[in-house]
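Customer escalation, tier 2.

The customer says the design service returned an amino acid string that "doesn't look like it belongs to this structure." They asked us to rerun it and document both sides in this ticket. The original structure tokens are below, unchanged.
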């Protein structure tokens, strides 16, 4: 049996959940999650009540919100609406990366939907939907939504089994809960299951030619040189018969596939909310997951390095108030986030990317704009993913919930970069000026810093 390097995703809870009521149980504590030992100040096993899913649950329980059932999809469409997730974010992955592997195949891919802080995984022929949400205090938390009509919608928070994969170091200590887009070998043609021991993560720093195996893609990614499709593994089952011709066969398939406006030719799309699996939505997802994970990591680590700041009589608000020794410990934790927010190590786009789902327009409309109509959510889709290379994740509640002294440090570093004082992160002067103007207009605290 041949093993080939496909990309796969662990996202929106790649684990199987058991039924329970809305009420949070003691199950997380009984599992003795390693985070409670490594990060006692975070209290990861405690109630997760600062997130979009929790707020939705309160509306359901109070009677202010009722989810609607439909025969083919159950509560999916209504759930996405309640969570403010647009259908154009739909991406489809057919690698078997959930414990629901019996339901996932090239003909029945898993559908993923997301907004800035919440992810929903839908698997055809399953009554379980997988939810991942970023809690302002706890970081990434996981739920199973039971998509059955015979009873009121049930949702259960899960932890230990999800964190076996969704942890930086597989719960061996020092890790944090994550949203993950991964690369791993699969077995073909027998079962397409990933071999987790060889998994590597994929984000906006990964060369395009190494991305998207195990994914369906709609839209167009054209080379800037000749207008031909860019080499990548999307829409490609990678099934070969002998290792000797493996490389040549893959290169041939990668260079001859047509880009397409939908994925109708691969499977019956009537079983999904749209016939798209948008390439731009996937590119944005890869960036968002990277930055979100680093925000979570900063939140966990700064509390571990500087726990006394939590119990201080007056919460520290300024980086300048942190003693020099603590600053030295904290900077290596925070700097990777700053680089990711500025796309400092992101792989440039070698050509033009075109959406077929309307995702770019819907995505861009969600963000604040300055008086000239500019937004950090504006997509460029040629040379660079975004028009203005400072991440829109700076507006998220999880970023705002970082300790004030840590956020103050990041804000000051953002200003240093935009003023050209950081030789390691360079932006064109015109782009830096535009970003500064957008920040000053949309985040009041920057008006006095820039």
């Amino acid at each position: 049996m041949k093993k080939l390097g496909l990309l796969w995703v662990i996202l929106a809870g790649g684990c199987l959940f058991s039924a329970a009521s809305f009420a949070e149980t003691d199950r997380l504590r009984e599992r003795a999650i390693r985070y409670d030992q490594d990060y006692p100040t975070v209290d990861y096993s405690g109630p997760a009540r600062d997130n979009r899913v929790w707020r939705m649950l309160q509306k359901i329980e109070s009677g202010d919100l009722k989810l609607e059932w439909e025969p083919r999809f159950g509560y999916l469409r209504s759930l996405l609406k309640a969570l403010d997730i647009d259908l154009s974010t739909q991406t489809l992955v057919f690698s078997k990366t959930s414990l629901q592997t019996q339901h996932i195949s090239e003909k029945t891919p898993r559908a993923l939907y997301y907004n800035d802080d919440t992810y929903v995984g839908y698997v055809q022929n399953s009554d379980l939907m997988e939810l991942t949400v970023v809690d302002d205090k706890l970081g990434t938390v996981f739920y199973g939504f039971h998509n059955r009509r015979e009873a009121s919608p049930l949702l259960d928070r899960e932890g230990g089994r999800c964190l076996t994969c969704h942890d930086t170091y597989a719960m061996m200590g020092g890790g944090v809960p994550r949203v993950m887009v991964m690369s791993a070998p699969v077995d073909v043609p027998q079962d397409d299951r990933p071999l987790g021991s060889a998994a590597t993560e994929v984000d906006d720093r990964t060369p395009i030619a190494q991305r998207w195996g195990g994914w369906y893609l709609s839209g167009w990614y054209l080379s800037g040189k000749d207008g031909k499709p860019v080499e990548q593994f999307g829409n490609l089952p990678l099934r070969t018969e002998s290792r000797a011709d493996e490389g040549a066969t893959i290169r041939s398939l990668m260079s001859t596939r047509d880009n397409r406006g939908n994925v109708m030719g691969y499977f019956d799309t009537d079983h999904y909310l749209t016939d798209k699996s948008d390439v731009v939505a996937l590119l944005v997802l890869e960036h968002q997951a990277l930055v979100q994970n680093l925000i979570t990591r900063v939140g966990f680590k700064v509390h571990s390095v500087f726990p006394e700041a939590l119990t201080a009589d007056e919460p520290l608000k300024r980086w300048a108030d942190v003693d020099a020794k603590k600053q030295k410990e904290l900077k290596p934790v925070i700097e990777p986030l700053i680089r990711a927010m500025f796309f400092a190590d992101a792989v440039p786009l070698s050509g033009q990317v075109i959406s077929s789902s309307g995702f770019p327009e819907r995505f861009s409309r969600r963000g604040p704009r300055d008086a000239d109509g500019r937004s950090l959510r504006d997509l460029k889709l040629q040379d660079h993913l975004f028009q203005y290379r400072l991440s829109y994740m700076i507006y998220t509640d999880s970023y705002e919930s970082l300790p004030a002294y840590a956020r103050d440090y990041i804000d000051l570093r953002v200003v240093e970069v935009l003023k050209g004082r950081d030789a390691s992160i360079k932006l064109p002067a015109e782009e830096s000026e535009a970003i500064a103007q957008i920040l000053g207009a949309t985040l009041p605290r920057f008006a006095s810093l820039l």
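Tier 2 assessment: The sequence is consistent with the input. Residues 2-202 form one domain. Residues 91 and 282 are 7 Å apart (CA to CA). Sent an explanation to the customer and offered a walkthrough call.
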